[in-house]
Amino acid sequence: MEVIISEDNKLIKRANKLKDKKYRDQSGEYLIEGLRGIIDTPDEFIKVILTVEGFSDSRLNDKKIVYITEKLMNRLSMTDISSGVIAIAAQKQESDFVSDYIIYLDRIRDPGNMGTIIRTAVAAGYEIVCDDCVDVYNPKVVRSCVSALSKARVHNGNFIDILAEKGYNIIGAEMGGKNIFESAKPNKLCIVIGNEANGIRKDILDKCNMICSIPMENMESLNASVCAGILMYYFKY
């Protein structure tokens, strides 16, 4: 069994560069660290599986496994304690919108929030728009949403005008808005969640057909991912 031992190996260099957003964008690839995230990602998206000598799991595609030293694995790992397995995966490419339910993220910057929103959006059946947000292929986001990223439909860019033209009802989540539990549920909608610190940008807020808020006691605001989850499930189910 051949084991890669050198940091100068092309595959090791390629994996290391995927920690950088610029290279992820150029290559259309990203890293998945951890067994659960890899086995739950459809095999068609997995290009290479890097693992340490002696690691074995019948759920992995043996044809894609490449063995490396534990020292190299620890250097590639993005966690304090390496899981012993990292995959290079292909990013999904989305074109048009196909769902009547969209969650629009305006400058969401926290990787944990982003990962949780992606998982919830996949579970609730929403497509995702990321407008000037943290990169969804950031390793921290990938770990947070586990395998949900491979099942998500993610669009990157400012699509608010396009969605309005397509007939989506744009619903902004902002303090002081109408109680969501007293709001009508349109059949075709786009929920906008704003930046954790600054809320929704004015130019996007101006495009909203409705501004809504979640009623609270003793608190002024909720975590962005919690807010997104409540709104997604309320407006769809």
What would you say this structure looks like, in words?
- The chain is of the alpha/beta class.
- It has ten helices and eleven strands.
- Strands 8-7-6-10-9-11 form a six-stranded parallel beta sheet. A five-stranded mixed beta sheet has the order 1-4-3-5-2.
- Strand 6, helix 5 and strand 7 form a beta-alpha-beta unit.
- Helix 5 packs across helix 6.
- The longest helix has 14 residues.
- It is elongated and about 65 Å long.
- It starts with a strand and ends with a helix.
- The mean pLDDT is 94.
**H/E topology pattern:** EHHEHEEHEEHEHHEHEEHEH
Number of helices: 10
Mass-distribution shape: elongated
Number of strands: 11
Mean of residue pLDDT values: 94
Span of the ends, CA to CA: 53 Å
Structural class: alpha/beta
Poorly predicted runs are none
What kind of sheet is the major sheet?
6 strands, parallel
Helix content: 25-40%
Could you give the order of strands across the largest sheet? 8-7-6-10-9-11
Q: Strand content of the residues, in percent?
A: 15-25%
Backbone CA Rg:
20 Å
Task: Tell me the layout of helices and strands.
Elements: E1 3-4, H1 10-17, H2 21-27, E2 29-33, H3 35-39, E3 46-52, E4 65-68, H4 70-76, E5 85-90, E6 101-106, H5 111-124, E7 127-131, H6 139-145, H7 148-151, E8 154-156, H8 160-165, E9 169-179, E10 189-193, H9 202-205, E11 210-213, H10 224-236
Parallel strand pairs: 1-4, 3-4, 6-7, 6-10, 7-8, 9-10, 9-11
Antiparallel strand pairs: 2-5, 3-5
Helix pairs in contact: 5-6, 5-10
